[in-house]
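Model: Ready when you are.
Researcher: Fold this.
Model:
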Amino acid sequence: MRPVFLWQSAEDYAYLLGEKATVDFMAYSYNYLPDIAIADVAFEAAGDTPEELFRAAALAAAGVMIRLADITVTVQKTITIQAETLEDLLYQWLSELIYLKDVERVIFVEFDLTIKHIAGLFELAADCGGGEIDPAGHELGQDVKAVTYHLFEIKEVDGKFEARVVLDI
């Protein structure tokens, strides 16, 4: 059985999403970094826009916890978050998704989100689609406990946005 949290290619991504999945890596992407954090899981995410970056990071975090193709979207939720910096916004966004996994037992895999910078604050508004975790019916990965600040960063490179995130498992 292939681990669901250590993929690094489009082929592995298709495995996570299901055999017939196709992925457009032009708008966003992510890959896991197995040698960065020995006891944790690290990944890099990228996107053409902050929204695509946040989508990629959310999918990367979800992919650590569950085979994404196993999720049937049955739950819809709107999430709004404000923060002073884009880094804090990403940290809070991923923390909220982990919190919802723990409290409501839902993993979100679809995201329609916007990020605005208003009056010195970044604001994220996201309509999320996900499904309830079923240990008997889902291929589970690692249980993510939290986002860490270790090596956490967002940077803009050539007009695209990149982030490095380490998750405590």
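Researcher: Now this one.
Model:
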Amino acid sequence: MKFPRIPFMISFLTVILISCNKHIIPPSLAIAQAIDESGWGTSHFAIEGNCLFGQHTSLHSNGKYIPVKGSNVQMAAFETILQATKGYMHNLNTTSAYHDLREQRAIMRNSNEHIDGNKLADSESHYSERGEAYVKMIQGFIKNNHLPNLDYVKFENHDQEFSIFIKQ
């Protein structure tokens, strides 16, 4: 199933916001990474296994995976986009490679600053073999798709109906 750009971002934003807690990953950052890693949700791995974030899994893993032809890498596969998003957030919130991201987020939170996805992207050079080029690509997606506005989205629950507010 191929996702047009706007519905992809809106449906994905909803999943991210539902998944968030005090260990927030700004929607701008998560969506930018999903855009890059899944080709706007059109990649083989996104379609076959809801693998929106390019998450690898160990060859010895017991979890679901999709083999990568000609490689020793396996891509993690998920039943739902929500599971994929939770896996992504768990990865960023627990893996030593993203310690700097968590430190930067803590500084922002302790200073009562807005948690800025573009600034946190600076800490993601380990997410891809592309390193700093990956960081610049993600920051480009954030800027060019006007994703920082999504970091201000708020949900309000009114008796089983949700309202979504986006800062303009």
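Researcher: Key takeaway?
Model: The CA atoms of residues 34 and 52 lie 5 Å apart.
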